[in-house]
């Protein structure tokens, strides 16, 4: 039987081989999210604020998809590492079923409660109108993003590095092309404004879903049989056991964004706009690291299933070096040109006055964030999702929000230092947890 490359390829080459397509595709994904917001900001300030307020709900949707994907990816890779292909195929099929359930979960509350949700954060009628239109469309059409995620995770776990890039990249390009046409009504297209941005997003995701289904059907590693399929309670519970903590962990970004929006509204007239712009920029800077994570999880899980300790540690250490280097470059960018970056979103003089020092302060946390992100994914891949959950709770809620409140009371301009305090402490804790995990788990693996 031919050896899987995840078992024999040199670890640094393997990590780069598995990660670069996802890093590129997620960079494209972040680019169209950034351009999406830039187009809407050109439309009006109310439109940009509406998208900023809708952002936590989109983050929650992605969090559930990512968490489910962590469970599918981890268990599927482990089954392949243990040379149990039939059980691996069963995991993939039950993963598709779970993602279909995710779409139904998003559909109903998204359509019914978009307007009441927006009204909690804004009393500006135009902002509420724009935001509720956007959320209703992206939640109703979320079948595309759900099934797109399932295709990506199945292909990653089976060692296909290029397939996920094609899924995300093609969908992102479609979105990018449709955005100006549907927002501004160019040529034969109607002017739909913010609703056009949402519709472009949904169409791009549906295209990505279609590409994913075609690529999974052509897979040589897994043979998926839809005829006679019945959901397996034991497999679903196993996926959720790994994936649920990851869902909660990813959902903390929603809690953090909502909390920071509320706090900033108390201390600054420009804070919500600055935070919205920051998150768009951050997604662009951090996406390559998340792509690296997507390549790291299946190869660590595979080698953990194959009991190859040295390969596991080599992968994690190399991932740390790459992530820290990428986010150090991001820090440098925000330190040098924060004003032009805010200008991408039509920032006025008041936003620039508050936003330039804010971005510089936040950027100091980036390298520490790289450490937390890589170790968090490593803990998931090694079957310790609760460690990842603890780490993310500290990074995004337990440390960040109280620190932001205290610093805001001391001096509103210092509130942005809360990111550095939370990330710095969390990265130190991550190192301690990793050393403990090595002694108790990795050191006992047979080579």
Automatic annotation (TrEMBL):
Pfam families assigned: MatE (PF01554)
Keyword Iron-sulfur part of the UniProt annotation: no
GO cellular component assignments: plasma membrane
InterPro entries registered for this protein in UniProt: MATE_fam (IPR002528), MdtK-like (IPR048279), Membrane_Transporter-Flippase (IPR052031)
Localization per record: Cell membrane
Topology term for the membrane: Multi-pass membrane protein
Keywords linked to the UniProt accession: Cell membrane, Membrane, Transmembrane, Transmembrane helix, Transport
Molecular function per GO: antiporter activity; xenobiotic transmembrane transporter activity
Residue intervals passing through the bilayer: 14-35, 55-76, 96-118, 130-149, 161-183, 195-216, 263-281, 315-337, 357-375, 387-408, 414-434
Recorded superkingdom: Bacteria
Protein known as: MATE family efflux transporter
Organism encoding this protein: Lawsonibacter hominis
Taxonomic lineage: Bacteria, Bacillati, Bacillota, Clostridia, Eubacteriales
């Amino acid at each position: 039987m031919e050896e899987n490359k995840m078992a024999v390829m040199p670890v640094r080459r393997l990590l780069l081989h598995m990660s670069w397509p996802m890093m590129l595709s997620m960079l494209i994904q972040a680019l169209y999210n950034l351009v999406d917001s830039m187009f809407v900001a050109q439309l009006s300030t109310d439109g940009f604020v509406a998208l900023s307020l809708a952002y936590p709900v989109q983050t929650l949707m992605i969090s559930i998809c990512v968490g489910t994907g962590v469970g599918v990816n981890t268990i599927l890779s482990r089954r392949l590492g243990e040379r149990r292909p039939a059980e691996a195929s069963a995991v993939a099929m039950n993963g598709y079923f779970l993602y279909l359930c995710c779409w139904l979960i998003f559909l109903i509350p998204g359509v019914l409660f978009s307007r009441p949700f927006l009204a909690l954060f804004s009393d500006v009628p135009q902002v509420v109108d724009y935001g509720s239109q956007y959320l209703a469309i992206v939640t109703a059409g979320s079948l595309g993003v759900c099934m797109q995620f399932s295709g990506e995770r199945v292909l990653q776990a089976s060692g296909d590095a290029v397939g996920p890039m094609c899924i995300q990249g093609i969908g992102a390009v479609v979105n990018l092309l449709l955005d100006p046409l549907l927002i501004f009504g160019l040529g034969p297209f109607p002017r739909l404004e913010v609703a056009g941005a949402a519709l472009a997003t949904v169409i791009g995701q549906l295209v990505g879903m279609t590409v994913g289904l075609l690529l999974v059907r052509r897979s040589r590693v897994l043979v998926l049989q839809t005829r006679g399929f019945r959901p397996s309670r034991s497999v679903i519970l196993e996926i959720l056991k790994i994936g649920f903590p990851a869902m909660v962990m990813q959902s903390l970004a929603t809690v953090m964004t909502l909390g920071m929006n509320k706090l900033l509204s108390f201390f600054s007239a420009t804070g919500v706009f600055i935070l919205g712009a920051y998150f768009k920029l951050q997604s662009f800077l951090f996406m390559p690291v998340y792509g690296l994570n997507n390549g790291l999880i299946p190869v660590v899980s595979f080698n953990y299933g194959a009991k190859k300790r040295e390969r596991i540690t080599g992968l994690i250490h190399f991932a740390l070096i790459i992530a820290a280097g990428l986010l150090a470059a991001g820090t440098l960018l925000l330190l040098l040109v924060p004003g032009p970056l805010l200008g991408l979103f039509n920032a006025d003089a008041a936003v620039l006055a508050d936003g330039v020092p804010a971005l510089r302060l936040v950027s100091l946390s980036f390298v520490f964030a790289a450490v937390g992100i890589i170790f968090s994914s490593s803990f998931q891949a090694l079957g310790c999702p609760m460690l990842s959950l603890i780490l993310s709770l500290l990074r995004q809620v337990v440390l960040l929000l109280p620190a932001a409140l205290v610093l805001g009371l001391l001096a509103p301009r210092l509130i942005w230092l809360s990111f550095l305090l939370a990330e710095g402490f969390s990265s130190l804790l991550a190192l301690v947890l990793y050393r403990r995990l090595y002694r108790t788990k990795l050191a006992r693996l047979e080579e």
